[in-house]
Write a structure and sequence with these properties.
Helix 1 (17-27) runs antiparallel to helix 3 (119-128) and helix 8 (351-360) packs antiparallel against helix 9 (393-407). The protein is built from 13 helices and 31 strands. It has 511 residues and is an alpha/beta fold. Strand 12 (205-214) and strand 13 form a beta hairpin. The strands form 7 sheets. Strands 1, 4, 5, 6, 7, 8, 9, 10 and 11 form a 9-stranded mixed β-sheet that branches. Strands 12, 13, 14, 15, 16, 22, 23, 24 and 27 form a 9-stranded mixed β-sheet that branches. It has a 5-stranded mixed β-sheet with strand order 2-3-18-21-17, with helices on one face. The chain folds into 2 domains: 4-202, Phosphoenolpyruvate Carboxykinase, domain 1 (3-Layer(aba) Sandwich), CATH 3.40.449; 205-247 and 327-504, Phosphoenolpyruvate Carboxykinase, domain 3 (Alpha-Beta Complex), CATH 3.90.228.
């Protein structure tokens, strides 16, 4: 447990959103919208920095963590040197301290505390998690402490790290460090990595997904996918309530939200297409890196980053399950923003196919969601969240497969990316209204009346027809004018799958 007595400066403890917004306006480059949202700017880093995440390698993590490009090891001694340096630099700062629970189900919940000199980072945590209102430090005993300071820049040569930014997780001491970056999402992803380390070892599947349901958590559905693939958008659908926006647990009782807020990508957002999210950007909500135009936030302006974001509490949404819990899902959707344009807009998967596509996590990195990513490029992200998965992908996939079989879930692969061609070469992005219709039909009827046929490229079962959706796009090859170019792209994607399967040590069923 972190010794708070090491911090000598004034500490503002558990301020509410109203007070934090005032302090942001006084202390940071910011603005206030007419609807009451505060706009902030995160600095040079406007997205995640996965190359800068380290986990302390010790007796607890040595044989369990899947060490590699997303889980860089650091010695406990070196971590402690960085911790000492960070504490020394923060010792005399005026700090904000926010206490909260991560996890809406007490059976899958941890107590955490964030300490930061930035009111905007405190507001982020205020919105994202279940608040604790104790004013006395001693009334709340956090299991995890996160020290976050964007302005602290470390010497990479001195500490043998990759840059001046450092996201360090000591899972044994339960102390995390997030410095050199003002992108507050690093805080919640550090906590999510914690869930992904401990929960599967208890038989609980922690998931990078959104969840919605009918009222009272009935008929729930899960939406897996990386940022920009549509998790937030598709979970906000007419007639259904949002249970969790981005991170959830699935135990023997049902699904529970890890967060108590939403962190939505908002580039190009408008009231017509996404009214629930658009209207949620109000009353203390915070928007990141959105420039002003004529005194108003310009949601179409990507001059700072394509990864413009809004963070707001769940209750800012009109249709929400505030308990954050739901029954076992009946439908599971894997969202892939396929920039190659060869996957169907929806396909029903067998359990074997579900495990295969889950463990591969084929999608496209969307512009701005990671540092240095400027345009969509197809990639693989195990379990649709490799940067946050400390264990081997197979462990998560096996847990998922067991639950699919046990609870009889329907699993769907949904392409929210390109159709009629690949990105930049004749393809166009799938229409949101058509994707919504496909997902809605899958939930309501499972396409039982429409029937299925097998497309030839990947052997996937696709619906023959769907009211409100152009029949031409249901089978990808029919949407391409140049069938030879389609075949060439399919071959390229299959080769990429083959290479990724070799890295994972699994059988490629896409040959």
């Amino acid at each position: 447990m972190f010794d708070i007595q090491k911090l000598k400066g004034p500490i503002l403890h558990n301020l509410g959103a109203k007070d934090l917004v005032k302090r942001i306006l006084d202390e940071e480059k910011s603005y206030l919208t007419k609807k009451g949202a505060v706009g902030v700017f995160t600095g040079a880093r406007t997205s995640r920095s996965p190359d800068d995440k380290f986990i302390v390698r010790d007796e607890i993590t040595e044989g369990k963590v899947n060490w590699g490009i997303y889980n860089h090891p650091i010695d406990a001694v070196d971590f402690d040197k960085i911790l000492k340096d960070v504490v020394a630099q923060m010792a005399d700062m005026r700090l904000y301290m926010t206490d909260f629970y991560a996890g809406m189900d007490e059976n899958n919940s941890i107590k955490a505390r964030v300490i930061t000199p930035k009111a905007s980072q405190a507001l982020y945590c205020e919105h994202m998690f279940k608040n604790v209102r104790h004013r006395d430090f001693n009334e709340f005993e956090p299991e995890y402490t996160i020290l976050a300071s964007p302005d602290i820049k470390l010497d990479p040569k001195k500490y043998n790290i990759h840059s001046e930014a450092f996201i360090g997780l000591n899972l044994t001491k339960k102390i995390f460090i997030v410095v050199g970056t003002g992108y507050s999402c690093e805080i919640k992803k550090a906590l999510f990595s914690t869930f992904n380390f401990w929960e599967p070892q208890k038989g609980v599947l922690s998931m990078h997904c959104s969840c919605n349901s009918l009222p009272k958590g009935k008929d729930s559905a899960l939406f897996f996918g990386l940022s920009g693939t549509g998790k937030t958008t598709l979970s906000n659908s007419k007639g259904r309530n949002v249970v969790g926006d981005d991170q959830n647990c699935w135990n023997d009782v049902g699904v529970s939200n890890i967060e108590n807020g939403c962190y939505a990508k908002i580039l190009g957002i408008n009231k017509k297409d996404e009214p629930d999210i658009y209207n949620a950007i109000r009353d203390g909500a915070m928007i990141e890196n959105v420039p002003l135009k004529n005194g108003k936030p310009d949601f179409n302006d990507s001059s700072i980053t394509e990864n413009t974001r809004a963070v707001y509490p769940m209750w800012n949404l009109k249709h929400v399950e505030l308990s954050g819990v739901a029954e076992h899902p009946k439908n599971i959707f894997f969202l892939t923003a396929d920039s190659s344009g060869v996957f169907p807009p929806i396909a029903k998967l067998t359990t074997e196919q579900a495990k295969f596509y889950f463990v591969n996590g084929f999608t496209s990195k969307m512009g701005g969601t990671e540092n240095k990513i400027a345009k969509p490029e197809f990639t693989f992200s195990a379990c649709f969240g490799a940067p946050f998965m400390p264990l081997k992908p197979k462990e998560y996939a096996d847990l998922l497969g067991t639950r699919i079989e046990k609870y009889g879930c329907n699993v769907w692969l949904v392409n929210t990316g390109w159709t009629g061609g690949c990105y930049g070469k004749g393809g166009t992005r799938m229409k949101l209204k058509e994707t919504r219709k496909l997902v809605s039909t899958a939930i309501k009827t499972g396409f039982k009346k429409a029937g299925f046929e097998q497309e030839k490229a990947f052997g996937l079962e696709i619906p023959k027809i769907c009211s409100g959706v152009c029949p031409q796009v249901l089978n990808p090859i029919n949407a391409w004018i140049d069938t030879k170019a389609f075949a060439k792209m399919v071959k390229e994607v299959k080769t990429a799958f083959d290479e990724n399967c070799k890295k994972l040590g699994i059988k490629n069923i896409n040959k």
